[in-house]
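DUF2849 domain-containing protein, pasting as requested.
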Amino acid sequence: MKVLTANRLSDGIAVWYAEGGWAETVGHADLAHDKAAEDRLEAIGAAAGANNEVVDVNLIDVTVVNGLVEPVRLREKIRAAGPTIRTDLGKQASPAVAGVA
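Structure tokens follow.
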């Protein structure tokens, strides 16, 4: 399974493509379950990059754990949640993101 991620150009915040826009939490991201869905997300990301909405557009691997979308790689977990040594900072400090580790 994959999701589309990028950094919003206006403020640098990590975002994930969700339902026609960019969400600030990975849990809302549109999931690609097959190659056709991945291709669709890549095309959306390319267009958003070309329109200067986002930068560093990538498809990343995710898994669903206890109903929550979780990035596979550590780098992406940090982008999704925040610093690993200060859980009181970043997105992980928000109750809406408490399930992301």
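Note for the archive: The radius of gyration is 13 Å.
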